[in-house]
Amino acid sequence: MVHVAYEDALAYCEWANRKLPTEAQWEAAALGKMHGGIYTWGDDEGELTKKANTWQGDFPNKNQAEDGFSYIAPVGAFEPNSLGIYDMAGNVWELTQDWFSVNYYESLVGNEVRNPKGPAQSHNPVNPYQQEKVIKGGSFLCDKSYCASYRISARMGQTLDSSSDHTGFRTVAMVEDLKNRPNKGE
Questions:
Q1: Quick one: how far is CA 77 from the chain centroid?
Q2: Which helix (H) or strand (E) holds 15?
Q3: What is the pLDDT of residues 106-126, one digit of tens each?
Q4: What is the reported pTM?
Q5: Domain boundaries of the chain, sorted by first residue
Q6: CATH fold of 1-181
Q7: Which string of DSSP letters, residue by residue, matches 23-92?
């Protein structure tokens, strides 16, 4: 699903008794069983057109679509990562529950933090009057010459009221929440 704003994603999560992932949860899912790696499949950028839906060619003038897609691809068009999760790189940016702060990780240097929950508030000097959430994974518009945001570590901020054809979301289900889930007719 694309063209959803943050509040739309939260409404779905409430209905489905799920949550948006934190940035740390998203990165852990993207890494899968690897112990580090630039991309969801490892460090070989040469695998990009086989592993993710991104821009190939002269951005923004001509997408060569070497990966088979000029725009959004169907879920599962590329093989999953080592945990069996599809589309963690490219295709559409994915909303997380964390506020976007350009200096959040700098503030953690020297402290061991397990499963960081993100900053208490948004901070982006380039967009100081808007609150932003972290988006991860890049999209079909990402290209090495432009943003290379299909890297696991890449992140951007998106305002709460924004939506686009290259932003969507995935959810996290906690085991204890699934046990308490009311039957929604599914």
A1: 17
A2: helix 6-16
A3: 888 888 888 888 999 999 999
A4: 0.91
A5: 1-181
A6: paralog of FGE (formylglycine-generating enzyme) (3.90.1580)
A7: HHHHHHHHHTT-SS-SBTTBS-GGGHHHH-B---EETTTEE--TTS-SS---TTSS---TTS----SBSS
